[in-house]
Amino acid sequence: MIRMEELTGIRKRATSAKEAGRSLHSWAFHQLQTMIAYKAEMAGIRVEWVKPTYTSQTCKCGHREKANRNGIRFRCQKCGYTLHADLNGAINIAKAISGFAA
């Protein structure tokens, strides 16, 4: 199974170069995801779409707080767990955490 972040409206959510890097608006998110889904289907692999809400703010301990994420740094305000924020979000997507802790 492949889990991917549902990217609908991503360009509206990250409007500035500071938030997302200058290349964000030129990247073909939909095209990439479509190709991955197509190749997965051809190989008999199921694809699940996960809403990205709170995935980069939720800790493995279950604590969710906006202050957990500061730029690229994730540090849980409750347990102190520290990780790169994007990696933390990817782990939560893999666990299908979307808007709540597991």
Structure in words:
Residues 29-93 form the Cas12f1-like TNB domain. With 102 residues, this protein is an alpha+beta fold. It contains 4 helices and 5 strands. The chain has helices at 10-13, 17-20, 29-42, 85-94, and strands at residues 2-5, 47-50, 69-70, 73-75, 82-84. The strands form 2 sheets. A 3-stranded antiparallel beta sheet has the order 3-4-5. The longest helix is centred in the middle third of the chain and has 14 residues, at 29-42. The radius of gyration is 15 Å and the shape is elongated. The mean pLDDT is 83.
List keywords for this structure.
31% helix; 3-stranded antiparallel beta sheet; DNA-binding; two-stranded parallel sheet; 102 residues; 4 helices; alpha+beta; single chain; Mobile element protein; 2 domains; Cas12f1-like_TNB; RNA-guided_DNA_endo/Transpos
